[in-house]
Amino acid sequence: MPPTHTNPPLLAARGLAFARNEQPVFGPLDFVVDAGEALLVQGDNGAGKTTLLRVLAGLLRAEGGEVDIDGARATAVLRSRAMAYLGHLGALKADLTTLDNLHFFTGLHGRRRGQMPGNALAIVGLAGYEDTLVRQLSAGQRKRLSLARLWLAPAPLWLLDEPYANLDLDGINLVNRMIQAHLREGGAALLTTHGAYAAPPVRTRMLVLGRPA
Amino acid sequence: MMAAAAKALMLRDVRLLLRRRGDALQPALFALLVVVLFALALGAEPTTLAKVAPAVLWLAVLLAGLLALESLFRGDAEDGTLDQWMLAPVPLAWLVLTRTFMHWATSVLPLLIATPFLAELLHLPRVQLPVLLASLALGTPLLSLIGAVVAALTVGMRGSGILVALLALPLYVPVLVFGAGSVAAAAQGLDPNGALLLLGAGLVAALVLAPLAAAAALRIALS
């Protein structure tokens, strides 16, 4: 730990590696993410971006290496307090209304101080859709609903897997605005992208994943 | 925190159930049909029916519960909700227990309520009804908990419907033996309490162990 750091980084990975059926998928990787920073994970399809996020979230077991959260070794309890995960799957119930979906997640995860499901819907541009069933929403609108769920999560560290997918220009700007606001409040974000979108205008580190030789 | 999570999950399951009322009635209709088929096949002789009634009712309830088992975690695994469960600040085993309880309450509990009527259909002697209900009340939650472990183990597999049944049925055997056995013992004038107490003990053990095992199985299945 360099002495210039007054606080330990929000997330630090040392020698993190993952293999599937003894085929290395990525790593070993070393990186840190401080509060107020975004880490842009870039790589081609199949480079292991999604796998990296799932390993960090504890959904997959790393082959080797360590993950620290706030200077302490990551455990399931620490992860659940610190991390909010937005995956390819929206974790939305098609037969429930948008508001019921959000209420379920705030019950499960708690919610960000001062935020309610109703105003989260307004933030992502779904005001007026409170009683709409998710199955009647478009793919882009579902993505926006997932973003509202993310916004409500009290966790400081966002793990965003292709947050720009399915979104129009306005939606891409929305993601960037949300990340900016989240980082201003002392949060941090990891986002994967295959490089075709504009990164948010925040302090950004880069991590490029290539196929292991 | 744990109470809030359980409440949110229960509320969600009730809302989903209300949205798909037709699906919710299927296990009960299935059990009714099984009982009717047995009654038709065995003929209308009340003494014959009364003799097999406990076994038929137990089997009907067991099979109906088995039907609903496959959907226990499948939907949540397919739409990514399970990922969010694992990152929730409550133990995964607690969510598994809540989900299993809701599965029992929505698919098996209606059957328990219908059992006195089905028992009447099969000419079960009224004195045996309390023993039958007690054995079902203790045995069916145990079946749901065992089934939850099997459903969790197979959640990552495609087309696992029949596999769930093949894995769960052998594990159901002891529950069926003691459950139907307690009523059979009562029919012969023997004391059914021993079998009922064994079911109760099994239920207590499963309440603690099954959610932990199912949670571990879910983590493996999703990785």
Give a structural overview.
The complex is a heterodimer of chains A (213) and B (223). Chain A is of the alpha/beta class and 213 residues long. Chain A has a single domain, classed as P-loop containing nucleotide triphosphate hydrolases (Rossmann fold, 3-Layer(aba) Sandwich), CATH 3.40.50. Chain A has 6 helices and 9 strands. Chain A has a 5-stranded parallel β-sheet with strand order 6-7-8-3-9, with helices on both faces. In chain A, strands 2-1-4-5 form a 4-stranded antiparallel β-sheet, with helices on one face. The radius of gyration of chain A is 17 Å and the shape is globular. Chain A starts with 10 loop residues before the first strand and ends with a strand. The mean pLDDT of chain A is 85. Chain B is globular, with a radius of gyration of 18 Å. Chain B starts with a helix and ends with a helix. Chain B is mainly alpha-helical and 223 residues long. The longest helix of chain B has 30 residues. The mean pLDDT of chain B is 89. Helices cover 85% and strands 0% of the residues of chain B. Chain B has one domain. Classes of the chains: A alpha/beta (213), B mainly alpha (223).
